[in-house]
Give the backbone structure.
Amino acid sequence: MIQLAFLLLFIAYPLIELAVLLWVGRQIGVAATLAIVIGSAILGLITVQRQGFSIVTRAQNALARGEPPVMPVAEGAFLFIAGILLILPGLIGDAVGLLLLIPPVRKAVATWSLGRFATASITRIRVFRQNASRGDPTHRNGRPTSSEKLGPIIEGEYKRLDDSDDEPQNHSR
């Protein structure tokens, strides 16, 4: 079902963009339509670059405080999507890209997406603070001293897909 939705999206979206470009071109002229598409791409890329530096700074500040930079990373992802939509020719993509350049709109979309992600899947992240001087995550009374440098440790499990436990091992030569 999801594959069919993506197939329709990849077929329908370019056709709709083309139809909108042709309609707008007939209404205001080809030169004006091209000026809008090229102008929105240039304006969008300049804005993406400036806002990108701001998001990187917010992520670094969150890491310096010992917090996971979930929101800045999510906003950065939507800023990246906005940049791609602005580069691709089309007025619908330009409109969505320009909307994603507005920080409150981008933050609302990122918050909504993170909420959907958290409720749609089983996501558990445990963050431990590590004592940098001893390499030991335990502290006196459960609290680190002020002289310790803290950083997040994210614990997880993985399984390599290329390893097979079922294959017989042949050690004969």
